[in-house]
Amino acid sequence: MTQLPLSLWEAEPILQHLSAVADTLGYPAYIVGGWVRDFFLSGEIGSALDVVTVGNPTLFAETLAQRLGTTIAAEFRRFYVAVVRWQHYEIEIVASRRESYTPESRNPAVEPAPLEEDFLRRDFTINALYVGLHAAERGTILDPFGGIRDLARKLIRTPTDPARTFSDDPLRMLRAIRFAVRLGFEIEPTTYAGIRQEAPRLQIVSPERITEEFHKILLSPDPTRGLRLLFDTGLLEQFLPEVAALAGTEMQQGYAHKDNFAHTLKVIEQLLSERPQASLWLRWAALLHDVGKPRTKRFDEKLGWTFHLHEEVGARLVKDIFKRLHLPLDERLRYVQKLVRLHGRPIALAQEGVTDSAIRRLAAEAGEDLEDLILLCRSDVTTRNPRRRQRFLENFDRVMQRVREVQQKDQLARFQPPIRGEDIMRTYNLQPGALVGAIKEEIRQAILDGIIPNEYNAAFAYMQKVAPYILAGKPVPEELRQNAQNKEGERNEIRTTHE
Ligand code: CTP
To answer: Pocket residues for ligand 1 (CB within 6 Å)?
Structure first.
């Protein structure tokens, strides 16, 4: 029997407190689940502790809270569960129990039961590891199904019949994939077969629970492995049929289109290699960027396969998906829709001769998400032909360069000189009108042309030179502008005379 060293108790006050409570109450208590699993894997002391008591959990929680100088944070008496928070720890205390499921519902009938029955209700062998807290078994590891061996073999395996485990709580099928991806484990073949068999039962799980689990997969460092497993097991079809429908190719007149599911995975992979910390919503955008393709697919005699308007259709599907999965229908939805809608635009703007206004429209529509959009577009280049790839990427650079140029132009167009209309009116005793505007414009142009620096004194001096002409209705002599521009000495003179 494996044993955790008791020195751990000396180092970790939380363990001392839990053990002291178990000893005071005189009934067995164990830490179980993720805390034990992760301790074995990384040696770290986690902050989420699941404690199983063979005795009243509420009493355990009350005694613990009192000892820690706090109160019970939450209680679900019907399920024999109580939660205590202390420092950064969250301790969930549950009674050792039996769970009975009916086929229609995933809410089990719960009743306290001996520990051997608690073993049987655990999802995976690696999550069915118990560390004794009470004096008689302090530090003892109970490993009823060979979980420690499975940790070493890197295996996800159900303790009993997988069909039963997954049918009881179908969310466990997503958990299996989440653990496999997060820990870099394999799913043991019988367990895998159980998932394939029970996949349709995911339908009885609420969208909130599904997305919470799916987000953990999507946010893991290797989400494409998770997506591939979700697809292969038939789970993806249950909650994201639009993405599952991307898989496969079709051949007509000797032309096949690419497998858009494989392509989507590649896009996510490339996106994460450029930006490993990509947000959840950027990951969603990459996942859904081509979701409109199956519905817009046509074979054209001349053009071959086309997916005309798939971006727009995709953006509409994004909303349906967000609604169905109870995802937020706020700016996060709009962000994903925006990227899906615009992801074809930059490449279309990369040709020569595209107008400023087309570039401006893209920049305005993408707004602050332009960088994310371009990252998505770059990741969307999955051709294996290195020259084509290079050309596409350079095209995006060209679009970004054009965007910067147009933005700079626009900034200049909006630029206001340091001399305001009121300054001009006061100096020349003018009423608001065309003359004031003309003087101001003359100064503005002088600054934009680099004739004078963008400073009040220089602008005021320039005004004093040019205004008499404008007020007299005469053209400003060209040499005045030339002088100011070409002779550094003169420019300095302007500055010093008015400082
Ligand atoms: N459990 C289960 N079936 C579920 C959820 C949980 O059998 N659908 C059991 C497992 O034994 C699990 C324990 O309850 O280890 C605690 O569950 P939870 O805190 O949700 O997950 P952890 O395994 O602790 O993992 P993590 O904290 O990484 O989510």
So the answer is: 33-34, 48, 50, 122-123, 127-128, 169, 171-172, 175
